[in-house]
Prior knowledge:
Blueprint: H1 2-10, H2 12-24, H3 33-46, E1 49-54, E2 58-64, E3 67-77, H4 104-120, E4 126-134, H5 144-149, E5 158-169, E6 172-175, E7 178-181, E8 183-192, E9 196-197, H6 207-225, E10 232-240, E11 247-248, E12 251-260, H7 263-284, E13 287-293, E14 299-301, H8 303-313, E15 321-324, H9 335-340, E16 342-351, H10 371-395
Helix pairs in contact: 1-10, 2-4, 3-4, 4-10, 6-7, 8-10
Amino acid sequence: MEKLFEKLDEIYDEIVSIRRYLHEYPELSFEEVKTAEYIATYHEKLGHDIRTGVGGNGVVAYLKGDRPGPTIALRADFDALPILEQTDVPFKSKNDGVMHACGHDGHTATLLGLAKVLNSMKAELEGTVVFIHQHAEELPPGGAISMIEDGCLDGVDVIFGTHLQAQMPVGEIGYRVGAIQAAPDRFDIKIQGRGGHGAYPHQTIDSIVVGGQLINNLQQIVSRKVDPLDSAVLSVTSFEAKNPYNVIADYAEMIGTVRTFKEETRDFIEKEMERVVRGTCDVNGADFEFTYTRGYPTLINHKEETEFVAKLAEDVPGVNKVAETEPVMGGEDYAYYLQHVKGTFFFTGAENPEWKDSYPHHHPKFDIDERALLIAAKVLGKATLEYMKVHAKAAVK
C-alpha cells in the first residue's frame, strides 16, 4: 500500500493542475462535451480501453490487471453549475455564468490521478478497475441512470465513490451505513386567479393572497403531519407574480423542493401537497396546476462495503479522523448505482481550517482545500487494492 501512497504523492501537483484546468473551463449538465473529450484523451494516453458517449456524455475507462480478480467501479462526476463565480483564485472560471461550485472538478482530477497510478501498478492488480466519469449529476434525471442503462455497471462487483465536503475539515472522512443522502424532489404550482384593478379587489381573485396562504399551509405538512423523528424538508424557493403597482395579479407561480429519506414519507407528502393546494385554491375560488417531479432516490449505503472503507481509511496518510456522519438532505444520483450493485459513498473533508471564511456548496465563492484530492485518491485507491486482495480468490472460477 505504501507504493500506492508514494506514487500518488509524486503526482499530487498533476492532480491539482487537472483540477484547476477543469475549474477554468466548466460545462453545464448535459453540455459537457469538451470535458468528456479531455477525460477520454487522458485515459487514451494511459492505454485504457474506453467508451465515450455512454448514456449521453459519460466516459467509461477500463484497466484490467495482470491477475484475475473482482471488477471494481470508481465513480466521479464532472458537470458544473449555472453560477457566476466570485472567487479571486487565479484559475477562476473562464466561462461566464458557469462554475464548478460543488467540487466535481476535484472529483474528476482525483479519479484521473488515481487511474494513472493504478495503471503503473497493472502487474500487481488482481482484477479490473472501471473508471466511471459521469455527466449531469446536478440536473435530474441525471447522468447515472442513463449510463447504467448503457452498461457502465456490466460485470461490476462493487462500486466506491466520494464527495468532497467543503464544510468538513480536510483530513476527515465521513461515512454512514444506510441512508446518507435524501431523495430530492421538485414541485411546480400555478395559481390561476382573476386579475383586476388594485383599487377594486372585491372584483378579483388575488393570486398573491392565495399564494401567501398556500405557503403557510404547505409548511404545516412537515411541522404537523410528519413524525418529528422522520426527517423531511418542504421549501418554496421561488414565488413570482409580476405586475404594475396598481394591478392585482391574475396568476402566480411557485416552485420548490421536497427532501425525504423514507419512500412512504415521500408518497405521503406528494399526496398531502395536492390536497392542500386544492383545498386552499377551492376556498378562494382559484384554479390551479400542480406538478410533482420525483428526483433521485435516497442514497442508501451497503453495510459491509461501508464498514470496509471506514476501517481502512483510518490508516490512510492525511486522514486524522474517521467518523459516522449524520445524513444530509442534499441529493445524489449515485443512489442509482447502489440500487444495482453493492458499494458505498463517503465524504472527504475539504475545508481549510485556516481560511477565515468557507462557503457551502453551490455558493459563488465556493472553494476547496486541494489536499483533499490526495486524501480522496488514497482512500479510493486503498479500497480498490484491499478489495482485490480480499476477493481475488473468490473471483477466480
